[in-house]
Amino acid sequence: MSKQETVLMEPEMEEETEIEEIAEEIEEVKEPKARKSKMETEKKATSVIDLPGVGAATAEKLAAAGYTDLLSIAVSSPGELVESAGVSEAVARKMIQGARDSMEMGFESGDDLMRRRENVERITIGNEAVDKLLGGGFETGAITEAFGEFGSGKTQFGHLLSVRVQMMKGEKNPVAVYIDTENTFRPERIKQFAQGQNLDPEKVLKNIKVARAFNSDHQMLLAEKVEDLIKKQGLNVKLVVVDSLTAHFRAEFIGRGTLAVRQQKLNKHMHTLLKLADTYNLAVFVSNQVMAKPDVFFGDPTQAIGGHIVAHASTYRIYLRKGKKGSRVAKLVDSPSMPEGEAAFYVDTLGLRDF
Questions:
Q1: How confident is the model at residue 143, as a pLDDT?
Q2: 279 CB neighbour count, 10 Å cutoff
Q3: Does 109 reside within a domain?
Q4: Comparison of pLDDT for 225 and 104, the residue scoring more
Q5: Is the peptide bond before 244 cis (omega within 30 degrees of 0)?
Q6: What angle do the packed helices 89-103 and 78-85 form, to 10 degrees?
Q7: Torsion of Cα atoms, 134 then 135 then 141 then 145, to 10°
Q8: N or C end: fewer C-beta atoms under 10 angstroms in the chain?
Q9: 172 and 96, same structural domain?
């Protein structure tokens, strides 16, 4: 290579070196921005509006539909969010995943669950035999189903629990919500039970919020509105009574052709109640109608309406039937921790009396 060629190449090499240095400086400037962007992406959401794909308008629509916290988003399905907020399915999945990542939803150890179980409370019904049958009373965070024929005491249980919930220790102004589907709620009966428990009847009635459901859709809507009583009105709801659970579903969906649709709606309704019980540590009591199976020739042909959907969704199941000399018998047929058993009692003006 000649001296002249060497002299000509030196400026070119200097230019290339300068370009590389400038490129490195640009990368150094861009790198903190990239790190910052990554940190912002990994930052956990603390509210609904922090989730990916959620703006002010979407957050407002979600709040109107009852999705006001991360938990409500995390446990929802994409289809529910698409319907409520009008977002695409892809955005709905991102929202759900973002909520789940922020809440670190996953497995927990048995001792952690045991500590959470210490927050479970029980509503006693005032009869030693019945309370003992349920391990101390009706459990919060769970659904208790009572099924039986007419006059077996289902509605009396609902009325008495609505009174007894106001005697819970450590709770300030506990409130009962009563969803009446069969026009069986009677304030006169509440007054009798209140007097029997030495409570002020007027105060007891004020702390029971009653709504009459005229069809299955209305019933499902009222169950969803319970959350508004807790969040917007600040009520300390500790009991939700649905009397009865299947009356409207049974009347509206007739024939085997509508069975699948009925069961799907009933399943959604039960999961709404279960979510309320678990999220707000309240007790849910549902009464259920029965039918007589024609193919049972020996034994009791009585079977609860709702099939396996209601059976699986209920934490405790009680079969109420008429006994001897005007008595009633409560039989515990399903429980996650208590053995099967029976308790006999009388229903009188003031409450449940020992058999």
A1: 97
A2: 15
A3: no
A4: 225
A5: yes
A6: 120
A7: -10
A8: N
A9: no
